[in-house]
Structure formats: structure tokens, C-alpha cells
Specification:
With 437 residues, this protein is mainly beta. The chain folds into three domains: 198 residues, Jelly Rolls, CATH 2.60.120.200; 167 residues, Jelly Rolls (Sandwich); 52 residues, no CATH class. The protein is built from three helices and 34 strands. The strands form eight sheets. It has a seven-stranded antiparallel beta sheet, with no helix packed on it. Strands 2-3-14-5-10-11-12 form a seven-stranded antiparallel beta sheet. Strands 16-15-28-24-26 form a five-stranded mixed beta sheet. Strand 31 and strand 32 form a beta hairpin. It is elongated.
């Protein structure tokens, strides 16, 4: 399926159509049902990926990505002008990755260029416009459980190419120099019969709706498993690489990356901000990779429609002493933490997001634990509550909606049976109260 992209009559051959991904950071061609065919190549540990590409700019993007675990991936180029060819994960130079600076190889990124990425057992090559650009050795075998492929983007459809692509093809074989030159010079004998591109399923992503439910850690290494839909599970966050949350919304780690961990699991679900949170989300968490107390790292969420949001973060680890963060929008970063301590529980912050603004989460690392998940929901209507201490020692609470009480500022919250105004003995007063419609 094609998402957030369009067809273009600008092609390397002057005929047919290319895919234009220039205008959206989450544009991609997603292959799900047919991606398992790539395991034919995995079975013999040989693959050749051929395509034409024309960049309008060169930020840090991916040209293709197969899951699980970055089975096949290429940056063409990364923002530093290097081309990277990853297989069976990232980023070991002996088993998974070859890369080199391509700025001086002679191609113009903004023109059509032909690329071929080859893995032939332990040997790898990268070809540009019919010439060998780079070769090397990577001993890690191709995974045999490939189940997803994104063309023109990175994992989950984010980090999209800023440009156009055409004639993307994967061969379960090692293309030789003559075959590569044939494709570069316009030959089509190696391709299957062309299909009518009008038959492709061109779909628009559904509009954004709340709640957006994020499980940090997913089913990556040292994780406790992905949460069921509609939760979006994130295995890890690589610094400066966006992750597609769907409906035009993405999340990007800045300052550092985040890796998963899963000690001291609660082993049960919970309810936060009225949302049922599965144990898979609570049983693990993401921590800042440089796990040093006193450091911090941000997550930026882009693409949210303007509105009032209730942002809830939570941590399931049962042995963590404390966990604090900052949550804000635009340029309004608070001077100090504004979540309160959400270790072993949750915290919610009301945030107003204007059109085009980003939502920010800043992780304040204390060397232990991390953040298990995030709930982005519509902010509840603001309601009024007042408390008066009477001369006879009772307390009168006047409130809109339903009165709720809790032993801590982060809950758990329980409804109080009674209408406003409600007078109670001071001995029955709870530590914290709120009104909720």
C-alpha cells in the first residue's frame, strides 16, 4: 500500500511513473503480505536490491527497510553523504554493515541515479550507475523470518526519502556486472512483466484520533512483548531517527537514543487516566542509553493536530525509587520537572498544542528505570473545586461533576458518593482531591 506519497511522471527512462515521497516524512510503499517472499533470498543468503532514486534533499533517511530487526536497510545517503548497507541488524562492521563516503563518487544526488545493493553469502557490494562503489565482508546471515518491507522509508514508514524512486526490484540472486549494466542502461529483461500501477492500493492514512497509546520497549531485545492493538509498540528509539506512530504523527529521540529493559516486572495491567494498560506495556521500559544520573534526553512528537491534550506517562518497574520528567509544547519548556514522581505508577500533564507545534517529553535520567509508555488523550474539561474548613471541624467541598480522592497526587483515584456541596468530617478528608466531569 502507498501512504502519504503520489505518482510522478518524472522517471529515469522518461516513461511510466515514479513514486514521489518529497513532501511527507512518513511517505512510503508498504509491503506486508508479499514481504515473506524475501525469505527465498534469505534461504540461500543471497540478495540484490536494485532501484532508481532522485533526491530533492539529503537529510537522514532510509531508502528501504525490511523487518524484523533491520533485516535489509540502506541509507542513500545519510545526511553526512555516507551510503550505508545494513543486513541482519545494525551496525557491526564485521557482521552487518558496510558504508563509505559517496560525496566525491561523481553522482549528483538531485539527479536520477541507479543503485544496486548486493549480499552474496559473506560478500557485499554497492553499485552506483553501473560502477562498483564499495565492497566488503559481512558474515551475519540474512534473517529467514522477514515479514515487512518499507520502500522509500525506514522502519514503520518513518524517515522517508525526500525525493523520488522508480523500478524498485529485489532479486534472490547475486546480480553480476553485465546484469547491473543492463538495468542501468534501460534493460528490462530481468524484471517480471509490468503491472498496471492503477491497480495498486493507494490509501490515505486515517485522520488522527485520541487516545494515542504508546508501549515503549515492544518486543525488542530485553523487552517483555508488544502490547495488543490499538497500542503502538516501539522496540527502541535511535537518536535523530523518527518513528511513525500513524496518521501523520511521529516520535523522534533527540540528544541520545533509548534502549529497552525489563527488570522487576509488575506482571499485571493497570488503569491510568481511565485507560486500561496491558501488562506488556508495564513490564518493560525504555531508558536513556547513556544511563547516567543527572543527564537528560528529549523525545519530540510531531504531527499532532492543534488542541488540548492530557499526556500521561507511566513506569511499571516495581523497584524504582523515583522517576521524573518534563512535558511541554513548542518553546515552553518548564524550568523544572512537572510530572511529579511517576515511578511504579503514572503522571499526567495538561498540554496545549498549537498548529504546527511539537509535543515534547524530556527524560530526566536518574540511573535507574525509565518510561514504560505514554497515553496522549483529549484533555478533560476544566472543572471547579473549592474547599472550606468550617468552625465545627468539618470540611465543605464544592465541586463540578464528580468528586474524586486519592492517597497520592498520581492516584489511584476513586469516586466519592455524594453531591456538591459535600460536608465531611475532617478525619475523613483524603490527602488529595479533584473534580472530574
Amino acid at each position: 500500500a502507498i501512504s502519504n506519497a503520489e505518482y510522478s511522471d518524472d522517471t529515469p527512462t522518461g516513461s511510466g511513473s515514479s513514486i514521489d515521497l518529497t513532501s511527507d516524512a512518513n511517505g512510503n510503499v508498504f509491503v506486508s503480505d508479499g514481504a515473506a517472499a524475501l525469505n527465498i533470498a534469505s534461504g540461500i543468503n543471497e540478495v540484490s536490491v536494485s532501484f532508481w532514486q532522485k533526491n530533492s534533499s539529503t537529510p537522514s533517511t532510509s531508502s528501504f527497510w525490511a523487518d524484523p530487526g533491520r533485516a535489509l536497510q540502506a541509507h542513500v545517503p545519510w545526511s553526512n553523504g555516507n551510503i550505508y548497507w545494513d543486513t541482519a541488524g545494525c551496525c557491526n562492521g564485521g557482521t552487518q554493515r558496510i558504508n563509505a563516503d559517496a560525496n566525491d563518487f561523481g553522482q549528483d544526488w538531485t539527479e536520477w541515479n541507479h543503485y544496486v545493493f548486493i549480499k552474496s553469502e559473506d560478500y557485499k557490494e554497492i553499485w552506483i550507475n553501473g560502477e562498483l562503489f564499495l565492497d566488503g565482508e559481512n558474515t551475519g546471515p540474512l534473517p529467514t523470518n522477514i515479514n515487512k518491507l518499507w520502500i522509500g522509508a525506514g522502519g514503520n514508514g518513518g524517515n522517508s526519502l525526500r525525493g523520488k524512486m522508480d523500478d524498485f526490484a529485489v532479486f534472490a540472486s547475486t546480480l553480476d556486472e553485465d546484469q547491473i549494466l543492463s538495468i542501468y542502461e534501460g534493460g528490462t529483461d530481468l524484471y517480471p512483466a509490468k503491472r498496471d500501477i492503477s491497480a495498486l492500493d493507494v490509501e490515505e492514512e486515517p485522520p488522527f484520533s485520541v487516545p494515542l497509546l504508546i508501549d515503549f520497549a515492544g518486543d525488542g531485545a530485553n523487552s517483555a512483548g508488544a502490547s495488543p492493538a490499538p497500542w503502538v509498540s516501539i522496540n527502541n528509539l535511535v537518536q535523530d531517527q523518527s518513528f511513525d506512530l500513524g496518521s501523520g504523527v511521529s516520535i523522534t529521540a533527540l540528544d541520545d537514543g533509548f534502549n529497552p529493559n525489563n527488570p522487576a516486572q509488575p506482571g499485571e495491567g493497570a488503569t491510568y487516566d481511565g485507560i486500561s494498560v496491558p501488562q506488556e506495556a508495564r513490564n518493560d521500559y525504555l531508558f536513556k542509553i547513556a544511563d547516567a544520573a543527572g543527564t537528560s534526553a528529549r523525545m519530540r512528537i510531531d504531527g499532532l493536530p492543534a488542541g488540548e491534550y492530557h499526556v500521561t506517562v507511566f513506569e511499571g518497574r516495581t523497584t524504582d525509587v523515583s522517576q521524573f520528567a518534563k512535558i511541554w509544547s513548542g518553546d515552553d519548556e518548564p524550568a523544572t520537572q512537572n510530572t511529579g514522581d511517576f515511578a511504579k505508577g503514572s503522571a499526567s500533564v495538561r498540554v496545549s498544542v498549537a498548529e504546527g507545534q511539537s509535543l515534547w517529553y524530556k527524560h530526566l535520567e536518574d540511573g535507574s528505570g525509565g518510561v514504560s509508555g505514554m497515553i496522549i488523550n483529549a484533555a478533560p474539561e476544566i472543572v471547579n473545586i473549592s474547599v472550606v474548613r468550617n468552625a465545627d471541624g468539618t470540611v465543605t467541598v464544592t465541586f463540578d461533576g464528580t468528586l474524586q480522592t486519592a492517597p497520592t497526587v498520581n492516584g489511584p483515584w476513586s469516586d466519592v458518593d455524594g453531591n456538591s456541596p459535600l460536608t465531611i468530617p475532617s478525619s475523613d478528608a483524603a490527602a488529595f482531591g479533584r473534580a472530574k466531569k
